[in-house]
């Protein structure tokens, strides 16, 4: 499948991906057809400035009035959960810029919330505040699963200034590129401070927090198709699981107690 989806130059043709999503989820399945568990999937409404974080849900928000919201906003409202096709939600949340074309107004949710732990916890808090009583839910524990932590790399030049020579111009170009990469890295950060903030939030609530993300020996691209690299990544993840067996065992104990 990876060789069919990631085929040709970027941005990749979306048709093979959409065909796969329709086969997996069905062409007519709606978000509300997923009865359990409750699902939150991130997307970015990029047809406005500032862009807005959107959750594809399989449930209605208690205070949400879609008609009123549409009449008050200059932008069209996203479909209700009962109207939102599952495959289109999956396509929208996977619309990574430069990899795939946008899905209507949607881009990949990772542009705003690449590690959406705090955003999901905030949604649960909002839900509890609105419904209260029997319909509210408490936090038992929080499990955050990452996709791997690449090794740190040395940055030779990151300064941008007025060049006084051709050599300076080269350094300025390198610095501008490094700053661009820095902005992208921080906007899409999945580890570091974003993890520590989620951990601290849970500790203040007295809620167990688990974060699992295997260290990687190299930075593996989103569209990597080389089986050797992918198998190595799987092996490194397996080693990570063994090394952190006690933490996984504690998670299992809490889930089954």
UniProtKB/TrEMBL annotation:
Entry-linked InterPro entries: Acyl_Trfase/lysoPLipase (IPR016035), PLPL9 (IPR047148), PNPLA_dom (IPR002641)
Pfam family, one: Patatin
Chain ranges of the PNPLA domain: 1-121
Any one Gene Ontology BP term: positive regulation of ceramide biosynthetic process
Record keywords, A-Z: ANK repeat, Hydrolase, Lipid metabolism, Repeat
GO molecular function, one term: calcium-independent phospholipase A2 activity
Residue span of motif DGA/G: 108-110
GO CC annotations, alphabetized: mitochondrion
Record has Nucleotide-binding as a keyword: no
PANTHER family assigned to the protein according to its UniProt record, in alphabetical order: 85_88 KDA CALCIUM-INDEPENDENT PHOSPHOLIPASE A2, CALCIUM-INDEPENDENT PHOSPHOLIPASE A2
Protein name (Swiss-Prot/TrEMBL): 85/88 kDa calcium-independent phospholipase A2
Organism phylogeny: Eukaryota, Metazoa, Cnidaria, Anthozoa, Hexacorallia
């Amino acid at each position: 499948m990876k060789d069919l989806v990631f085929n040709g130059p970027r941005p990749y043709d979306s048709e093979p991906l959409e065909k796969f999503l329709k086969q997996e989820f069905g062409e007519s399945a709606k978000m509300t057809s997923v009865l359990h568990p409750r699902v939150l999937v991130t997307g970015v409404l990029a047809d406005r400035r500032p862009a807005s974080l959107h959750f594809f849900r399989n449930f209605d928000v208690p205070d949400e009035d879609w008609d009123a919201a549409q009449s008050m906003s200059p932008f069209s409202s996203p479909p209700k959960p009962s109207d939102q096709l599952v495959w289109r939600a999956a396509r929208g949340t996977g619309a990574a810029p430069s990899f795939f074309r946008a899905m209507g107004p949607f881009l990949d949710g990772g542009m705003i919330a690449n590690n959406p732990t705090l955003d999901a916890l905030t949604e649960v808090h909002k839900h509890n505040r609105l419904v209260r009583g029997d319909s509210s839910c408490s936090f038992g524990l929080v499990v955050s699963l990452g996709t791997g932590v690449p090794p740190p790399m040395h940055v030779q030049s990151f300064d941008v200034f007025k060049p006084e020579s051709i050599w300076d111009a080269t350094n300025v170009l390198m610095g501008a590129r490094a700053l661009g990469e820095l902005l992208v890295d921080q906007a899409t950060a999945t580890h570091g401070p974003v993890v520590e903030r989620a951990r601290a939030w849970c500790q203040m609530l007295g809620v167990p927090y688990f974060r699992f993300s295997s260290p990687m020996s190299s930075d593996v691209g989103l569209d990597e198709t080389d089986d050797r690299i992918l198998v190595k990544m799987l092996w490194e993840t397996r080693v990570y699981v063994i090394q952190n067996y006690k933490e996984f065992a504690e998670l299992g104990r809490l889930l089954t107690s």
